[in-house]
Write a structure and sequence with these properties.
The chain is an alpha/beta fold and about 375 residues long. About 40% of the residues lie in helices and about 15% in strands. It contains 14 helices and 12 strands.
């Protein structure tokens, strides 16, 4: 087989990172469910918490190939990946800079846990490179971004951030969940470490809880040393399911991205909609930047209905689109960040970030857009 960097994206999704069935020659990877392996006279001492079972070792090759990195690790959840990676690079007295708009779970992790470890942190005032630069201190070790961000789909200039960090000897991390490696590969712009909630687009079927990190071998070694102590390992059955899901990721994400652009365009023209947040729209303030650093604009968008429309009643009237937690499944879902994904931020911080109580986050699936539009139309009529 060709080297991974010469393979097409669908070929990587379908073939890289397989466990070969040497005994029965099956077409798919066998599952090694054992939690106990021999320790004497073996090349590798395997243990699930060490993230080196046969299925674990194989799957990370696929993730690394997709993110164009040397190595990767998988975890039991997206937050396990986020927390382990951040803590691997910070110790008492160190400082981290995080962008203003972030996933609520990450924001809460910083506020609730960092003071216990004596870790200092700063949030940028906005997404300009000057705002990042102003927060740099002599003890700054990590610069953490999320683009597109959850839930407002803000866009951060990855190259500018990476250049600033390298000039100051700072490690860069990105939550690449919303874009997925299909729509953007941050390593192309100099970002050091890519983090994913693999529950989302990598899993893609709303039946997997997992996280992933991709980076250089050196950085992965650093993360691994913390990971084996924190214990956020992934069961091999879930590893197998994730490998299965990744085989179709390119097909799913491209369809979802195409659908999201159509739905954003429709909502942008709908008289019942006050505002649409989607980087694929030319009206988005960072559309040109998104076009420059993304291959596609993704399957996520957010929108606000006119104030006279009851947001919760609108979602209750939906018949096809599911009002549901999480995102990125093949089925379309909606939720209110204020009461779900970003509830932990509190009202004041949500207002500071621009997350209104009436904001709806829309994870667009693979359905025909005419059916999604029809569902929204009937819900708007019946919620009044």
């Amino acid at each position: 087989m060709k080297k991974n960097n010469n393979l097409g994206i669908n070929t990587i999704c379908a073939h890289v990172g397989e466990v070969k069935d040497e005994q029965f020659k099956g077409a798919i990877s066998p599952i090694y469910m054992s939690t106990s392996y021999a320790f004497d006279d073996v090349d590798v001492m395997r243990y699930p918490r060490y993230l080196n079972t046969p299925n674990q070792e194989a799957l990370v090759k696929k993730i690394a190939a997709l993110e164009k990195t040397e190595d990767a690790l998988i975890f039991g959840s997206g937050m396990a990946a986020v927390s382990t990676t951040i803590l691997a690079f910070l110790k008492h007295g160190d400082h981290i800079i995080l962008q203003q708009t972030l996933y609520g779970g990450t924001y809460n992790f910083v506020l609730e846990e960092f003071k216990k470890f004596g870790i200092e942190y700063s949030f940028t005032k906005n997404l300009s490179i000057e705002s990042f630069q102003k927060e740099i201190k002599p003890n700054t070790k990590v610069l953490y971004i999320e683009t597109p961000s959850n839930p407002l789909l803000t866009i951060t200039d990855m190259k500018a951030v990476a250049d600033l960090a390298k000039t100051n000897g700072i490690v860069t991390m990105i939550d690449n969940t919303f874009a997925s490696p299909i729509n953007q590969t941050p390593t192309d712009f100099g970002i050091d470490i890519m983090i994913h909630s693999a529950t989302k687009y990598m899993g893609g079927h709303s039946d997997i809880l997992a996280g992933a990190v991709a980076a250089s071998k050196k950085h992965i070694e650093t993360i691994w040393k913390t990971a084996i102590n924190l214990g956020g390992s992934l069961s091999d059955f879930t590893v197998w399911m994730l490998e299965r899901s990744l085989k179709t990721m390119n097909l799913r994400v491209k369809r979802q991205s195409k659908n999201a652009l159509k739905m954003a365009t429709y909502l942008d023209k709908n008289v019942s909609v006050a505002k649409v947040y989607y980087p694929g729209l030319k009206s988005h303030p960072n559309h040109k930047l998104a076009k420059k650093q993304m291959k596609g604009f993704g399957g996520m968008l957010s929108f606000e209905l006119k104030e006279e429309i009851d947001v919760m009643e609108f979602q209750r009237k939906l018949q096809l689109i599911k009002p549901s937690m999480s995102l990125a499944g093949v089925e379309s879902t909606m939720l209110n960040p204020a009461v779900a994904s970003h509830a932990l931020l509190g009202a004041e911080e949500r207002e500071n970030q621009g997350i209104k109580d009436g904001l709806i986050r829309f994870s667009v699936g693979i359905e025909e857009t005419k059916d999604l539009i029809a569902d929204i139309e009937q819900a708007l009529v019946n919620c009044k």
